[in-house]
Amino acid sequence: MLTTEQWQMHEITLAGTQTGNPFTDVFLKAVFRHDVGYIETDGFYVGGGVYKIRFMPTVPGKWTYRTQSGDPALDGKTGEILCGPATGNNRGPVRVKGKYYFAHADGTRHISIGTTCYAWIYQTGDLIEKTFSELEKYGFNKIRMCVFPKHYDYNLKEPEHFPFIKDADGGFDFTRLDPVFFNKLDRIISRLSDSDIQADLILFHPYDRWGFASMPPDADDRYLRYMAARYSAYKNVWWSFANEYDLMTNMGGASNPCHKDIWDWERFAKIICAHDPYGHLRSIHNCGTFYDHTKPWVTHCSVQGAGTDNADKTRRTYGKPVVYDECEYEGNIQHNWGNISGQEMTKRFWLGAVYGGFVGHGETYLGHDGILWWSHGGKLHGESPERIRFMKKILEEVPEDIELYPQNDAYSIHYFDIHRPSFVNFSKPDGKYTADIIDTWNMTVDRLPETFTGDFTVKLPGREHMAIRLIKL
């Protein structure tokens, strides 16, 4: 009997046909059964006559499985899996908690503190190692990343491998996936999972010179089914259907048309929902126009915008958690979205947090051998990551049953942004409070020696980016 643990990806490897095109010609799935129910999942081809089925047990206990396939070598295979309880930092997939927040499957709160490295999976091993090191150093627990390569400023090199194999004419055969590429992606997602970092997989984007953004519908659908079969069993996967979906309309011009309309996105959502039996988080990201996030398949709003203090307005509009995955980037490139200061980035994180949302980081600094974190990963050079890590620690101290917005009488954080009051008046007649002075830029927390009740005044140093934390005794 094979053994694994709850929410850990378990893999079954089978040998089958190599004739024809196994990516398109061979059907494979398995049904996993437990006393509490069953899970049906698709298998996939990895090359060399090898097929795999990946499974994430959702409850401990004994699971049995049986395969179904048109290939006799793959059909009717059975087995048992003994699943133990989750251990270590394995807290299961992230779900929506209540209405506006996130929690792992075991109920532990998830405070999303993400970053963006669009094309880091296409980089060299050394650069990937540096990226992992920086993610862990600064405590980022989510990374947005493209599956397809990206063609854009500062990211013009030709990748070594692609999701699809090239044909004899040098174009891409959209019916045959490249095992080398996907094996590398497997290793990256597995390592992120081991580090308790969510892999926010961007399935489509408009910045393309290879034709991936303009594949025919049958190729789009086949690619999505393959992604769901291969990656749904990872506990740390999120699905982002697009980066800047609203730019994917004839983005490439006549020579490389990229056209996706609303019905395409709805069709893509049906495919992922149907082929991801675990219901991972799903979003779609905008450039200018928000998608209709009230759609039932959208689990949370992934939005672009500098006004992170609008988090509560946005979440009330759509009735879902709001993640500002792109609030512009700390850096110094020529584009206005890529040259805000570290202080401004830090401010936007705090505004998002105190208004009930989550904010994502990004960095676009030139002058480091052409390696920009936003695209390549590597090393961080900005001033905000250390301050974001400090903010994350502050947020982790908030009791799990407390929401920062609207402000709670028992525990509240009052952030003053660029304003510099020398004192703030409060009225708290129903109890005694401690007061902490938080300097969000200099990363200090000073507990005032006295306790407060009734009408009282808390003095501040008259600097920008200060906050007061009140905790009821």
End-to-end span in angstroms? 53 Å
Q: Please give the order of strands in the largest beta sheet.
A: 17-16-15-12-11-21-19-18
Q: Please give the CATH architecture of the largest domain.
A: Alpha-Beta Barrel
Question: In total, how many domains does the architecture comprise?
Answer: 3
Number of helices: 9
CATH structural fold name of the largest domain: TIM Barrel
The proportion of residues forming helix, as a percent range, comes to 10-25%
**What's the β-strand tally?**
27
Fraction of residues in β-strands: 25-35%
> What is the general shape?
globular
Report the uncertain regions.
Answer: none
* Major sheet summary line: 8 strands, parallel
What's the topology here?
Elements: E1 2-5, E2 10-15, H1 22-25, E3 28-34, E4 37-47, E5 50-55, E6 61-69, E7 78-84, E8 94-97, E9 101-104, E10 109-110, E11 114-116, H2 125-138, E12 142-146, E13 164-166, E14 172-177, H3 179-194, E15 198-202, H4 217-231, E16 237-240, H5 262-275, E17 282-283, E18 301-304, H6 311-318, E19 322-326, E20 330-331, H7 342-354, E21 358-361, E22 363-364, H8 373-376, H9 384-396, E23 411-415, E24 423-439, E25 444-447, E26 452-459, E27 466-472
Parallel strand pairs: 1-7, 11-12, 11-21, 12-15, 15-16, 16-17, 18-19, 19-21, 20-22
Antiparallel strand pairs: 2-5, 3-4, 3-6, 4-5, 6-7, 8-9, 9-10, 13-14, 23-27, 24-25, 24-26, 24-27
List keywords for this structure.
473 residues; alpha/beta; TIM Barrel; 8-stranded parallel sheet; globular
